[in-house]
Amino acid sequence: MAQMRRYPYLVLILLLSVVCMRDFPVDAATPGDVSGPEALSSHFLTEPSEAQPEKIGLEYLHGQAGSMGLSVSDLEELQVTDQHQSSQTGATHIYMRQHLGGIEIEGADISLTLDRNGRLATTKDRLHRGLTQKRSSVTPRLSGGEAILAAAEHIGFTVTGPLTQISATVDSPKQESVYAPAGISRDDIPLKLAYVIKDGQPRLCWNLVIRTPDGAHWWDLYVEANTGAVLKQSDWIAQENYRAYPLPLLGPGEGQRSLLIDPADAQASPFGWHGALSNTPPPYTDTRGNNVFAQEDTDADDTGGIRPDGGATLDFDFPLDLNLQPSGNLDASITNLFYLTNVIHDILYQYGFDEASGNFQQNNYGRGGQGSDAVVADTLDGASINNAQFGTPPDGFAPRMEMFRWTLGSSPSLIVTSPPSVAGSYPAGGALFGGTTTGLSGILIPALDAADVPGPSNTDACSPLSNPGQVSGNIALIDRGTCTFVTKVGHAQDAGAIGVIISNNADDSVITMSGTDPTLLIPALFIGQSDGATLAAETASGVNVNLVTARHLDSSLDASIIIHEYAHGLTNRLTGGPGNTSCLSSPQSSGMGEGWSDWLALVMTAMASDLASDSRGIATYLVGQPPDSRGIRNRPYNTDMSVNSFTFNDIKTLNQPHGVGEVWASSLWEVYWNYVTAYGFDPDLYTGTAGNNLALQLVIDGLKIQPCSPSFTDGRDALLTADALSSGGANQCLIWNAFAKRGIGLSATDGDGSNVNGVTEAFDLPVTCVPEPEGAVLLVSGCALLSLLARRRNKNALRT
Predict the structure, then answer these.
(1) Helices (H), 173-299
(2) Short-list 340, 251, 325, 257, CA closest to 625
(3) Mapping DSSP to helix (H, G, I), strand (E, B) and coil, where does residue 753 land?
(4) Which H or E run includes 376?
(5) CA atoms within 13 A on the CB side of 666
(6) Which of 73, 206, 342, 736 has CA atoms 20 to 30 A from the CA of 15?
(7) CATH 1.25.40.10 fits 253-403, yes or no
(8) What is the pairing mode between strands 475-479 and 499-503?
(9) pLDDT per residue over 676-711, tens digit each?
(10) Domain 53-134 belongs to what topology?
(11) What is the CATH superfamily name and number for domain 583-769?
């Protein structure tokens, strides 16, 4: 007893341990259980040093030259081009360029990063090896003025003023000088010698910069000093334009398209969206690039179809008429899909879905990963309807996003109102092209044309119509056969028809007419052979008809579906590593995959005006609902339990995998709103630091941490670990409260994780997250102290 009085703190700790022990399952950590920031280790290339950063970097390079394939001569002429210290991390970034005989080598750069303690963290180089032995003459055959003339001819301008040298550097190997604009530049023209490596050899060039008088281009050119050929050029002005629905708009239901200029992120897409190795000229001027290949695939043959071309200026500004069937808006639709898929790529890059993590790029720029796997994105894929899908193979193999057409509203119908002998409703099929109508009335007129090579019948409209005066302003009746549906409807439209009915020429079957022609604006229906003959026999008496077409919608205009599908690629590449994309196939994990996809769609389309109690849906545009409806889900997403009451036990009865996913997405939505409530909202998804940004970072970090085939509790625990690693556990209770609200609390169990029937929900919290009743501060604080001691004990155990 006397000893206890001598050690009162020991008595307190013993008492608290009895009360608190059951609340700390982390105490059971075993070797290999890395659950806190104290278990992290960092890797640096050098030890701490107080020497100048440049000296530290150069000493390392010289010491490691052999292992890097460099010789001393390769390093002896490195010159610092830039150096700065990050105000956020304290890291020093140094950029050097390789020189040869005092003349710089274009693109031969190396970057070094050191932490605030002088430890070298990374080196990334594009240096050339063994060039000393390959050096050519350093005496240019062409003068600087002659190089300017060659450059002007190359870019299509004529020198109209005197080529006056304004200044020159004396006794410099680079022979730097400045010339007057000479009528070809808005500014003075700087000039210097530089090497360009071509076919492994250093070629001496004049490097000059010309900003064209019209301001459209700012050329950085390398003119070979012996021949006058332009070996390399890049434009400092980028003008990629896309008319699309910008985030956070969901699509047509929330606002208008905008013309978006140069939206590519410089870090994630350093050569723009159409470039791969350089940005001038881009390898593609259509909707292909380093991150995405977008095209139509209405015939579902996966070989690539129509792609809009933006031309040399990459101008993707195309009209959109929502009254047409989707095939009438292909250019606008593919542009929207290309734009959004690239935006998703660039945003996710900021949060760690990069090359090394297995993202989707053709060229990985030496940053890790396999490459050769840009997303193949198909608009109006003909393989299915009312759906979309994303197939994710392992890193290095291209995924495929297939966006299908959706049907909305009434089925196609044909109603004859007179004469009474043929009045009634007739079975009809629609068309994938042309306009739409909820009721178009008119007189039915047979369309007549020549019986010729394009079509042997005079009623098949395979040639321009011979009776346009009768057809104009009326509905044309045409027989099927020989030529395409779009050809027939096109001829009727040219003759002034307001609609078309095509009659089968083989039997009474009714089909949906395929074809693509964005110039077709009138609606068309298809009827059986017998019905066509019946109506044709009465046209002389005047047949009055009413057409109703099914309205087809394009899923490439719905941001929630595009993001949802792309997110499947994200979660499959990050769970279990980019080389294993089969980790989300069990009943729980496949549902979680759907949930992450819904959640990412909600996060990327969130607005500053949103409230936690607002309802949000998925694919609302495609099912004709406002954005605050449920869309294609069982319930709208909402933190109000009276609107969306899903909890853990509901995965036993909800449809798989999407219904199961709704429970997971609802839980993550609670996490999101807890973060936004605590840290605010930032509309900038690229560099923002508010709660929505933190929540997105947390989820992506958690994907990398969780095991293959995760259960709901595995996913929850991965987020808790991610928070411990990033913030030291500052947000543990935000996460616990979110999951406990949806029944995935401390005592919840996942069964064996392989099915949905064995789960047990629980709504309890760790004691550290339980609201403190009056007088319980000492107890809770003591429990927290015991938790900290336990974590430190586990840390020491891991190190022994």
Answers:
(1) none
(2) 251
(3) coil
(4) strand 375-385
(5) 31
(6) 736
(7) no
(8) parallel
(9) 999 999 999 999 999 999 999 999 999 999 999 999
(10) Nuclear Transport Factor 2; Chain: A, (3.10.450)
(11) Neutral Protease Domain 2 (1.10.390.10)
